[in-house]
Specification:
The chain is of the alpha/beta class. 31% of the residues lie in helices and 30% in strands. The protein has a 6-stranded mixed beta sheet with strand order 2-3-1-4-11-5. Strands 8-7-9-6-10 form a 5-stranded mixed beta sheet. Strand 2 (39-42) and strand 3 form a beta hairpin.
């Protein structure tokens, strides 16, 4: 049996994806989630896990360093990598939204929007017929309206608690987001049996 290398994002998606794999019948060590290693081998299942930043997972899969991966739909839409999106795992559900301070009023002369998803933000506002300047940030997006860097933000919203605690409100919902099982096209040809087995087992439990 060929070994499969799986690229996984650290954090919430990793924990939920590992739980899903266990439910699907994969025997993963009990201490698996506690490890701080970035590469974890599970030889009894012929699996190697590579832990990367969420935005980098599709890159690892596209480049063939990993055969398969788990990536948020937000990352897939933003990065537009050449990978096969095979299955909606229905984990880590959240949505992409526009938010601002409560006193924000549309109609400013030079609207600015901060986001770590510049491509998605540009596309969304273009579809709305609005021309905006998008400022790319890598984290703590909620700071932008508070500090006057931008009037609005485009970011992932899960429970809404982070927005609320920072005095922001959601203005518009852009898209529902879940995590997806993605596959490198070349790996899908070479390791088809192993990848299809994993997809079939995951399909049975999502």
């Amino acid at each position: 049996m060929n070994q499969l290398t799986i690229a996984m994002p650290k954090g919430r998606i990793f924990h939920e994806a590992v739980a899903l794999l266990r439910t699907a019948g994969y025997r993963l060590p009990e201490t698996f989630e506690e490890s701080r290693k970035l590469i974890i081998d599970v030889p009894e299942e012929h699996l190697r896990f590579v832990l990367a930043k969420p935005m980098d997972v599709p890159t690892y899969v596209e480049q063939g360093v990993a055969d398969v991966g788990v990536a948020g739909k937000d990352v897939m839409l933003e990065e537009k990598r050449d990978v096969h999106e095979m299955l909606d795992l229905k984990i880590s559900a959240c949505h992409l939204a526009v938010a601002s301070l409560p006193d924000y009023q549309k109609g400013e002369l030079h609207p600015k929007v901060a986001s770590k998803y510049p491509n998605l933000a540009i596309q969304y506002f273009k579809e709305q017929g609005e021309q905006v300047e998008v400022i790319k940030l890598n984290g703590s997006i909620e700071l932008a309206p508070i500090m006057g860097l931008a009037n609005r933000i485009v970011d992932i919203v899960s429970t809404g608690q982070t927005l609320e605690e920072n005095g922001l409100i959601e203005l518009e919902k852009i898209q529902e987001i879940t995590s997806r099982f993605i596959v490198n096209p070349a790996s899908y040809r070479v390791k088809r049996a192993e990848i299809q087995r994993m997809i079939k087992q995951l399909q049975a439990v999502v």
